[in-house]
Amino acid sequence: MKHLKFILLILVLTLSSAFHKDLNEYGKWLKFHHITDESFAPFGKEQSFTFQWKPFELKNAEQTLFNKLYYYNSDSSQFLDLYSYNIQLHSDAKGHITSSMGDPDSKIQLIQSKTKQATTLLFLGTIEYVETAIWRTDKQVEFFGFTIENEKYIPTYWKFDFDKMIFKVCKSTKEFKDKPSSYFKEVILEELN
Fold first, then answer.
1. How far apart are CA 113 and CA 91, in angstroms?
2. What pLDDT sits at residue 3?
3. Considering the entire predicted model, what is its pTM?
């Protein structure tokens, strides 16, 4: 009987780690912060937006460092830059990448791969920040992060629809009293290295 329990325990642990590998970026973010999808509800009204294309301002040398952190759509014709505005990356002689904070604000951009034309989707002040993103389709993208209200961290996501040119915000009913661990540092950078 003890032998059977041990085998079942190993099986459960193996399957749970296998499921984590199959999660999309949103699922990994939810799991990392111990949040459920069901805890989110729309916040405020849908808002319209427009594309205002301008040259992508990141220098080619910096783009090389950030290239592995871009979120590409299915045919790689567009990508999302979540980090270059407010995070500085450093690479050592062995290629190990570390980060440090830059600007306290953050700018989330959509960039055309061929023309390097960019448009800002979100410009967030110090009370909001994005940790990761996912393309749902080539015309729908979602960003996941936090809003700080009354000294509490509220899981938040921003959902953009490029066909309808609208976005909406959803917030979780779960709140964090202390600043949550950094998904960027503990998951994204770790996967990169």
1. 24
2. 55
3. 0.84
